[in-house]
Write a structure and sequence with these properties.
By secondary structure, the chain is mainly α. It has a single domain, classed as Sodium/glucose cotransporter, CATH 1.20.1730. Helix content is 72%, strand content 1%. It contains 28 helices and 2 strands. It has a two-stranded antiparallel sheet. Helix 8 crosses helix 9, helix 10 packs antiparallel against helix 19 and helix 23 runs antiparallel to helix 24. The longest helix is centred in the middle third of the chain and has 37 residues. It is globular, with a radius of gyration of 24 Å. Its main location: membrane. Keywords: Membrane, Transmembrane, Transmembrane helix. It is a multi-pass membrane protein.
Amino acid sequence: MQLEGLDLTIFGVYIVAVIIFGIWISNRDKSATASDYFLAGRSLPWWAVGGSLIASNISAEQIIGMNGSGFELGLAIATYELMAAITLIIVAKFLLPVFLKKEIYTMPQFLEERYDGTVRTIMSVMWIALFVFVNISTVLYLGALAIEQLLDVPLYIGIIGLVIYSACFSIFGGLKAVVWTDVVQVVVLLLGGTIAAWGILSFVGKGSVIGGVTELYNVLPGHFEMLFEPSDTFRDTATGEERSSFNLLPGMALLLGGMWIVNTYYWGFNQYIIQRALAAKSLPEAQKGIAFAAFMKLFIPFFAVLPGIAAFYLLTEKGINVDIEKADQVFPWVLGNYVGVGFRGLTFAALVAAIGSSVSSMVNSASTIFTIDIYNKFINPAASQKRQVKMGQIAAASALIIGAIVAPALAAADQVFQVIQEYTGFLSPGVLVVFIFGMFYRRGTARAALVVILLGVPLSLLFKFILPDLAFLDRMALMFLISSALMIVLSGVTSKKAADPALNQTLSNASEEASSPTVSSAAIVKDMSIRNGIAVLVIVIGVCTAIRLFVQPVPGVPDWAVYLFAVLSVAVLALIYTDKQEDDHKAIDLEPSLFRTRMGFNISALAVLLILALIYGFLA
């Protein structure tokens, strides 16, 4: 079913209204400085931070991609959303304070302050490539796929339309225009997504949403499994083949293992996400906004997964023809058939709003990294504030155009959400290690970080070839262990001194002063506390994966791979606790007061943990 009449009118009015609003914001608050354009003048209140985080995150890959995975795999795909809630709390408490202390614009900028310019430049190029060729292109493709079904226009027309829509407020207005349109769009997104879920669940439950969910749970218990076994499979909608569910969502790895790499990388070190928190008025305001976003994440599976499960129920249990050729077409089908007239146009507008928000955020962040980390550093170091803003606009337009050109190439993919996760996973373990060790491991060197980053992608590809049956989340855990070992070992054999002898003397004097009995021992976080913190991360990701592979053998994964996990886990833990190297000259001094949070945030964090415990206690 396609949009027509009232639905088309509502959709058109909404799109035009948002474009006008974005242009008005852009012209009302013209960006005079780089801080205005890239960080909204560091003036965002908590509700804008939280709303923009969700609007930037929830896009076509969630609403369309996760419903497609829900159709084929079930509720287990919701782990990406549910575990993100607790990850957001951790990012707000332990990572964000360090970034705001450094007053940075971009993630690569932090890498230069902690390591050196080479690490910064390489990561800048990698991130821009990831944003343009993976993130922007996939969101444009999935959005255009929905437009193709609901408006009966060719795929390329949908892509062009989304590019124009996103460009209206992402290129000229900078982050401020993106964030304020996000605030509007997140309301429409939540409302529209809820309407779509309400429509199909009410149909399943014969007028009752709760009855619909209960019916799905009783009739399709396999689709409500949160932790798969190695023997679990699903039928690929596009090809009709039986494929492994476990390989995509490997059981306990969703709670203890590679999922922590996915979520910590995405919410903690992903420029287009963390940029909203960097633009907050203050640290407490940013933390409040992130806690707000964490609560919203708990609600997302209601409309990002359940409609897909309901569609599977209608196909398999009621014999209704679900007219799709691939899983990612499920949500547009639900929208076209189970949402009432008028609401259908509003829900489709919400979908396009989500796509526009995410694309705008990615484009703004890609242009931020290019301008701050490449243009200002290598091409025009003396660029004026006005010139930086202009270059950011040119970079944003270029990112949109290239992403649009690449987008149609994804037409052959099924479950694009999983494609995004796997390809991002080639980069994320090494990036996570470089940042975590850079922030909390005082002995890490620039040379060690450079090797970890350069080897990350090729080693991931090598293990994908050698161990094709190893789930990509487990492969990410393996790469995390290898990267951690490399970071510690290589830091021990590379120089920790600054190139300037005078700076070394200054740092030496500062170190002696810090160790003086007259200086309070509470001034800096204790070394053993930091070692314990890194060790906990290694246990949660590496040791738990090793134990699971021993207890729950995976067909096709050889014994030597399991032993490799165990040996690497023990080796990294031993290195952490026996390491007696001197500090690197760029090590960050972390005061305990930096990580103190307000009572409201602490209560919010506890509430999120309790809700997650109830969900997994009931379903797992």
